[in-house]
């Protein structure tokens, strides 16, 4: 944000909005939380954290070893990594011949107290070509050999197969947030372009898009999503993004169309016309910056709405494929686990989602107020 | 008045045609040949051939569209692809359970939200107001799935206050025994957003001059809030309630699914799971029709609530 402009220039909309936003404590706290989630998503997407979420590192339904702050922050995720990695070769000796050696080297470096005992090493020997080296390194580096095959407890518990719930939540956040952001971009783009065309040109183009709008709004949103999901048989992240984006543009369309109707008669647009600016230039270079704050608010409203929709779709099994974890698929597993009294996966996924959505909604409200002070 | 209604009904035709076209494009063009969808579901080749003939898959698209429009107009969508039950029969029998659930919920939810919104708007800016608004925001952020899973587990499974799921034959048994927990969950989920919205509607009215006039002439606060403010705030409230009404049929699908209530919403989920296109097509078109009719009803209700409104 360019808030350090020379004082001779009068502050623009964005500068003023940023100033108002900074004065709002709730907005800044929510922004910090949202940014923390986004950083976590970036780290997880680039494979820095939670890369091995599918590894079965604990006993089945391992209970959580600590019940600290409810929010699974990005920082907490890195802490359990050495312990879990050290157990990895003993459970999955077939996985990767080098993984064992790697882990063992790591073990040595970290001097982790927990390591595979002799029995496990011999078990690994039959499959792993590097097992000899591994055992050697292990016997050198590790003296105590009392660890078990799988961790009895995990930071936020384990699921049915003993996968780390904390890592699943991080990976699930990545899927859900990326889907929410991507589909919000698609929906906002469609709504903006349609609304700009309809509002700017008017006449039959406006009639056509209004008809299109009334068709889409007369079908309840969730029904439309489910109908599209029924037709598109293949599951996948891209499919959900398309479903949500192609069906969700209506709200933005209405707002942007109204803004363009209002702006197209203004003097600055007439001036642009007089200097010979083309229609598309007037629409997107001259008018668009003046309505972009509406677009930004719409984008954040959509992100929250689509994250919620994605969770429901994935829960029902129409969303992400089986090998991808999202908050929705976690809640689906948690439903059966709760009957057995294993509440931690439900709590973890539910809390992560609630924290992000609360922060995002509060930030959206503050953003809207900051960008349009007349509203208050 | 009648002229207005007829004109509005007339204007629905292009929209309805658009909905039909959209559903047609989705299911006949994007969805492709039903033979591929049905291959794993129906073993008899004869039956598949029958369905293809019924839909006119071999014919050009305009003939198929004609067949679809005829299906919509005559309300005859043929039989379900998975259970062979006539689609019209599915719709009629599933409507009852949905209504048993939705009508009491809608009434309770609207009344409670209005009452709370009036109360909160009256003490606007106070600690109570802010606490209620914050808890609404937090409550809204928790997924409906979490509410359903937790409530079903705690109240039905652990405490045994309600049946875990099921549906009976008698209306009163369904309403009192089987619907109460689902309705409770829906209330918890729906009051938070409604309350937030209705509160802003009330706040728009509460600073108007007529409220000051009413106070000046010595009316009781109860009368000012419940008669003067509420009546003026009712137009946006009616818009909101009527606009969400048809969507509720589908919106309750999660609850219907969890509690095994044989309603429309659960039917949609089942149909999507089984790729039962005739059922989805029929429900989509008729819910769209219902949406348009409810929009018209909302406009007529404005006139009843506020005589100043001119229908033109």
Features:
heterodimer; A: 376 residues; elongated; B: 312 residues; mainly alpha
Radius of gyration of chain A: 26 Å
Biggest chain pair interface: A-B, 45 and 47 residues
Q: Give the ordered list of helices and strands of chain A.
A: HHHHHHHHHHHHHHHH
| Strand percent estimate of chain B | under 5%
- Termini of chain A, distance in Å? 24 Å
Summarize the amount of helix of chain A as a percent range.
55-70%
Count the helices of chain A. How many?
A: 16
Structure classification of chain B: mainly alpha
**Average pLDDT across residues of chain B?**
80
Largest sheet of chain B: none
Give the oligomeric state: heterodimer
In terms of DSSP E residues, the strand content of chain A is under 5%
- E-strand count of chain B: 0
Q: Considering DSSP H and I runs of 4 or more, what fraction of the residues of chain B is helical?
A: over 70%
């Amino acid at each position: 944000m360019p808030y350090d402009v020379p004082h001779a220039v009068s502050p623009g909309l964005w500068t003023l909005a940023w100033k108002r936003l900074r004065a709002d404590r709730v907005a800044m706290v929510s922004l910090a939380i949202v940014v923390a989630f986004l950083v976590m998503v970036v780290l997880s997407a680039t494979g820095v954290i939670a890369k091995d979420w599918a590894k079965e590192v604990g006993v089945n339904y391992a209970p959580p070893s600590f019940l600290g702050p409810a929010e699974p922050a990005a920082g907490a995720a890195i802490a359990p990594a050495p312990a879990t990695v050290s157990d990895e070769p003993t459970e999955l000796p077939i996985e990767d011949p080098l993984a064992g050696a790697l882990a063992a080297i790591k073990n040595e470096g970290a001097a982790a107290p927990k390591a595979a005992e002799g029995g496990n090493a011999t078990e690994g020997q039959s499959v792993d070509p590097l097992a000899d080296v591994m055992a050697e390194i292990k016997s050198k580096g590790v003296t105590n050999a009392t660890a078990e095959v799988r961790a009895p407890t995990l930071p936020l518990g384990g699921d049915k197969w003993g996968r780390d719930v904390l890592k699943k939540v991080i990976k699930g956040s990545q899927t859900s947030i990326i889907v929410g952001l991507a589909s919000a971009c698609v929906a906002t783009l469609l709504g903006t372009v349609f609304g700009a065309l309809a509002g700017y040109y008017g006449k039959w183009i406006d009639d056509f898009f209004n008809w299109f709008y009334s068709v889409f709004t007369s079908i309840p949103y969730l029904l439309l999503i489910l109908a599209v999901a029924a037709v598109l048989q293949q599951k996948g992240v891209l499919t959900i993004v398309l479903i949500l984006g192609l069906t969700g543009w209506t709200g933005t369309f209405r707002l942007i169309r109204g803004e363009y109707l209002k702006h197209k008669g203004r003097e600055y647009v007439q001036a642009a016309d007089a200097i010979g600016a083309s229609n598309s230039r007037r629409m997107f270079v001259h008018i668009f910056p003046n309505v972009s704050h509406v677009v930004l608010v719409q984008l954040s409203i959509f992100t929250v709405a689509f994250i919620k929709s994605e969770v429901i779709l994935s829960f029902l099994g129409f969303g992400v494929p089986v090998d991808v974890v999202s908050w929705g698929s976690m809640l689906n597993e948690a439903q059966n686990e709760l009957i057995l009294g294993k509440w931690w996966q439900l709590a973890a996924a539910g809390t992560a989602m609630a924290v992000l959505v609360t922060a995002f909604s509060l930030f959206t409200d503050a953003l809207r107020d900051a960008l349009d002070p007349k509203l208050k | 008045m009648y002229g207005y209604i007829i004109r509005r009904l007339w204007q629905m035709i292009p929209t309805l045609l658009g909905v039909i076209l959209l559903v047609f494009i989705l299911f006949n063009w994007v969805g492709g040949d039903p033979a591929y969808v049905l291959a794993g579901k129906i073993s008899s080749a004869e039956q598949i051939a029958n369905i293809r003939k019924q839909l006119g898959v071999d014919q050009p698209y305009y003939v198929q569209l004609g067949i679809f429009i005829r299906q919509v107009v005559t309300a005859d969508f043929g039989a379900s692809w998975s259970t062979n039950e006539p689609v019209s029969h599915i719709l009629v029998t599933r409507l009852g359970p949905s209504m048993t659930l939705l009508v009491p919920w809608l009434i309770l939810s609207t009344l409670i939200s209005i009452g709370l919104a009036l109360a909160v708007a009256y003490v606007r800016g106070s600690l109570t107001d802010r606490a209620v608004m914050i808890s609404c925001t937090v409550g809204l952020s928790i997924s409906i799935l979490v509410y359903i899973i937790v409530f079903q587990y705690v109240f039905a499974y652990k405490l045994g206050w309600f049946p875990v799921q099921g549906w009976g034959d008698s209306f009163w048994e369904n309403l009192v025994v089987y619907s109460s927990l689902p309705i409770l969950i829906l209330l918890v989920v729906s009051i938070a957003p409604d309350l937030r919205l209705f509160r802003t509607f009330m706040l728009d009215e509460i600073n108007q001059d007529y409220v000051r006039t009413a106070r000046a002439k010595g009316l009781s606060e109860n009368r000012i809030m419940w008669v003067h403010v509420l009546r003026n705030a009712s137009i946006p409230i009616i818009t909101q309630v009527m606009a969400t009404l048809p969507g509720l049929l589908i919106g309750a699908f999660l609850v219907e699914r969890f509690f095994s209530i044989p309603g429309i919403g659960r039917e949609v989920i089942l149909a999507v799971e089984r790729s039962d296109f005739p059922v989805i097509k029929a429900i989509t078109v008729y819910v769209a029709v219902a949406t348009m009719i409810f929009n018209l009803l909302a406009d007529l209700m404005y006139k009843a609530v506020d005589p100043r409104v001119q229908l033109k």
